[in-house]
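Thread title: Can someone regenerate the structure for this chain?

I was given the following input by a collaborator and told the matching structure tokens would be attached. They weren't. Posting the sequence so someone can regenerate them.
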Amino acid sequence: NSLQHKKAAAAANTSWPSTAIIQNQKIKAEDGSDYDTFINFTSHVASDLDLRVIAFFLPQFHPFPENDKWWGRGFTEWTNVKKAKPNFTGHYQPQLPIHNGFYDLRVPDVLREQAKLAKNYGIYGFNFYYYWFDGKVLMHKPFEILMENKDIDINFCLTWANENWTRRWDGMDNEILIAQDHCEEDSRAFFLSLLKYFNDSRYIRVDNKPVLIIYRPNIIPRMRETVLLWRELAQECNLTGIYLVGAQTFGFKDPNDYGFDAAMQFPPHTVKAKKIQAADINIHPSFSGVIYNYADAANNAIKGKPSINKQF
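Best answer:
Regenerated them for you:
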């Protein structure tokens, strides 16, 4: 029985992906989907919503020396995008680029086109992840391009991705590739490194204060004192102030805990939803992740009580 089970599992692993891909192709053909074709730029009427919609921007779509060393020469996020396979019938994977192709963020025209595309769909600005590690900044090329090309018409702000960078990408400190050194000296140097961005006319502000988001506030020692330090530095550097936002990750919820101005939701952190058993749906036999009911997550979010604090 054990041998038969192994043969059946092996057969399933071999046949499932091709079957799912064929089914996906049929679905695309039936609904006229063009997810797998290039899409030309088409102008849209500007949105009249009184909202400032900000898109998270991961700058890892270009090669740099550390990634070459850690993951192999030429590695970018496209390496993982292209490897994606469908896990269930109708699953659109891999999701290939349809506007700017497999772009390289070292090319200024890429960021220029992304800004044009974003504004065309009513996006106010980009929130770039800022990878500062004890004085060393990784993936900073897009920021350099932004500073050097004032004609790139997009507002922006920064989120400090202030955790150790590890071999696994789940926030756990398994094999550390490059570490943080959270201390007063580092916090001071970090803040001063941001001034050139804060002083840019495109930088996003609240009450004329530059917005700075911290991904994991509760791993910085003496966080409340650090907040006071940053506010003092803002005054010394002739800023109106600093608008600090804490991402609600890894147990952090209340911005008052550290004297922040606001909190920011960060799904899937704090999301409540029922789990779905892989055995109950037609899913790839080798899938080993956790599946949640999206409708349940959406309903719970809608029913949730509004935060008593400022929350984005």
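Residues 208 and 308 are 23 Å apart (CA to CA).
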